[in-house]
Structures are given as structure tokens and as C-alpha cells.
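Task: encode each sequence below as C-alpha cells.

Item 1
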Amino acid sequence: MDFLEKVVLGEIRRLTKLATQYESEFAKIVMGHSIQTAQQERRQKQKEINTLAARDKELDNLFEHIYEDNVSGKISDDRFAKLSVKYETEQKEVAARMKELQEELDSDKSKAVTSDMFMASVRKYTRARKLTPRMLNELIEKIEVHQSEKIDGKTVQRLTIHYNCIGAIEIQDLDKLPENNVSVHTRQGVDVHYAACAS
């Protein structure tokens, strides 16, 4: 089992233990994160829509200016034609992206993420001995591997695990919750240790 696999399996074991032994705390964490993540994503999408709308307006103004410049003879017909194509192409891309983001926002509203859905998935893997593709697909959206760094003479590799529905959560070190201490000796003779990365 490689380093990443050990780390992810260790974190899933901690997550399942938290879900089964500290159910109310887990529900609070999951609900808090799912709401927070959804709100953050909505804000980012809305911000992008606003930026794109401003650019769309700007492109209208630019097109108007080049049209006036062409009529008054300040720019040639050839230059006008090239700029027209450029602005129209960008405007189509802007409109398509805005439509895509709006559709995502509309579908996000209809998605009611509950802690029960995620907890049901987590509970299936309480006795997992190894990672399976199905487990990864059900629980994990993505894993960010950060640049390794030296801390107190040790090489530490930070990872951020983004879970489906709830994003990246930091599991508190509650009593009796197993710690995920993973350390491997690399071929280059360096010991690499795992450190959870806060979201």
C-alpha cells in the first residue's frame, strides 16, 4: 500500500469512527460544512457571472467604438472586420459561460445535501481494510497534494481531502479517535510524514 493510499484510508477510518461514535458532532460538522461549501461555491459562481456581465457590456462599448472609428475613417475596413470577429467570438464565449454558471446555480438550489446522505455512505466503510475505487467515488471528490516541506528536520507532506457533498473538513482530535500517523521511507532515503491540511 503506497503513502497516499495509507493516508486516505487512515482519514476514512477516522471519519467512520467519528460518524459512529460521535454522531451528533459529526452531523454538526457535516451540515455546517455542506452549507458553508454550498454558499461559498454560490458566491464564487455569482461573482464570476457579475464579472462576465461587466465584460459583456464592455465588449458592446468596444464594438460601438470601433464601428464609429470605422465610419469616421480612423480604422480601416480590414481592421474593423478583424476586431469585430474577435469581439463577437469573445462575447459568444462570455454568454455561453454565463449560461453554464446560471444553470449550475439553478441546479445547486434543487440539490438538498443532508448529513444523513453522507453519513449513510460513510457508515458502509466502518471496517474497511483497503481502499476500493467504489469507496473513493462515493466519499471523495478530490485530493490536493501540497508541496512537501521540512518541519523540525522531518519531511512533511500535506494533503487536503475534499469529500463529496461537504468539501474539505478537518476532523478534530476527539478522545479515542485514532490518529492518522503515516510515515514512509522513500527510495531516496527520506522519511515522509503525513500532515492534514486545514481547509
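Item 2
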Amino acid sequence: MYINYANKIQGSNFIQSKNIFIKIMTEFRRNHETRKGRSKRGFGGFIGRSVFFVVFLVILLFMLYRTVAHYSGESIDIETSPITTESGDRFFLPSGSKGQLVHHKHYSLSYNEKNEQADWVAYVLKRDELKMPNVPRAKRFKPDYDVKTQSAFHKDYSHSGYTRGHMAPAGDMAFSTEAMQESFFMSNMSPQLKECNSGIWKELEENVRDWAFDDKELIVVSGPLFTNPNPRKIGKNKVAVPDAFFKILLDVRKPEIKSIAFRIPNAKSSVHLKEFAVSIDEIETETGFDFFDLLLDDEEEEIIESQYDISKWKFSSKRFQDRLKHGNK
């Protein structure tokens, strides 16, 4: 797992470290040689070279430790995990969307101007975040001014019969005020019937948080699905109403790497959540997106995305019963 990716990171880090070392040594020699009254081969030069050699050795050992950590499955922060790089590159993002790629601090999205919503929203949900006290829920939905073509507005949904359905849930972003505020960008919304938003979609979100807590870290990708080529439009900005929604989950931690996807109709449902489980391949076929082509090599991608094992995902019976009693209203 991650062999190609880890080698790529290891190689780039090594080259970068080597270049930095060469630059430092070149500057050191230049300064040393221009000092009057000092021998180029003197004791000071020996000490200086020794110091820089030790620094370079420490850098190499650090790179080696981090690469080993990639393979060992340790609990590594997202900034140094195989999921992202130190520069913030997010290698878990889907490809294939023609929308504008927008990076917020806590999630990324691809904005589809035609539908006035994201084709997908992707982020990493971690146990450490879920353990933090929840900040107050945001109260205002805000336009996303990072969208060049302008996102939908709050009023587009008003009196439409549809709620503003989060693709990256506020509950997943409750660990900080900044993350919470980001989750209320209109680019993160999609028109959902109330019975879906407060019913089966909410139940799925709650189960995802349970799974992320149990598994330490999950990659989550959500978005709308359109089976009708001429979907209903709402608001002045003509926001398209999806027929269904997808949510894809990938657990990349060893020893039990696993995935599952869900296709949830934009409707009231009393059917058990398990009945909506599908493979990632099925969502890829419907959307035309390639979800983890940068994160997984071809062989791993074929195996992980073509199948799922429902027994590896523990569904909450209590949350299902809560939906049947209260959530479908």
C-alpha cells in the first residue's frame, strides 16, 4: 500500500534536502575562503564541515523515519500522512470533474456552475477532531467568494420546498469555529428534501462519525447525483435539484483497509441504511469521476473500489430507530 506514492514523497524530500545541504555548504565554503587570515584547511573549516554533515544526517534520518511511518500504519497527523503532503497537497481528491477546484482549509470541492453546487466535497475525518468539544453551530449560510463564477446564495433555497443540505456536515466540522464557518458556505450545500436531510442523510452522517472514531481516520467524499437530464431548478441562480446523493468512505489504515459507498435517494425513506450500500465503482460509473486514482495504484484501486464488505461497518440500530420515529418528519 502506498509504495509508489511513498517512494515519490521520499524521493522528493531527499532531493530537496540534498539541494538545501549543497546550497548551505557552497555558501559556507564561499564565506570561509574569503575570510582573511584563515586557512581553507584549518581547524575552523573542519568543525564547520562536521556541523553541516551532522545537520544533513539528521535530515536524512528524519525522512527515513517518516517513510517507515507511512508503511507501519501509525497514527500520523494528516499533514505527514500518505493522504496529504507537508505542502498541503490532497492526494485523496477525485478527478474527472470539470468544475472549479476550491480548497478551503478543512475540505476541498469541485464547483459545477451549471448545477450551482459542488460535484463533490472531500475531506479527512479524524478521531482527534471528533474528541474535541463541539463549538456552537453556525447560524448563517454564506456565499463562497472563492468560487470564481459565484456560488449559489442563501435566498435561492428560500420557500423552495428544499433545505440546504450539507455535503461536509456541520457535525464533522464542529471541532473548531473556523471549520464550522467553512461548512456553512453555500458551495457546500445541495437541495435536499427535509425528510432526506433530517432523516436518512442525517443517520448516515452520524454513522460516519461513529466509524471515523472507531477507525481513527476516514476519507469522506460526498456529492449530488442527477438521473434526470433536465432536473428541477430553484432560486434566481437556478440551483439544480439532485435525484440522489452519494457518500464514499475509505479507510486507508492498516491492517484492515476497506471502503464502502452509499447512494441515497433525495426522498423520505424507512429502509435500512445497509440497503443503500454500493461499491465505489458503481458511483464512478454514474458520475464519471475517478475517486482515488492519485492515492492508490491501479491494482489496489481495482480491488478496493470494486467491492465492499458490509460486515466491516457497524451500523447503529439506535440511530435507525430514531430515524423511523423522529427523522422522517
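Check on item 2: Residues 3-72 form one domain. Helices lie at 3-34, 43-72, 127-130, 177-183, 194-215, 280-287, 298-306, 317-327.
End of task.
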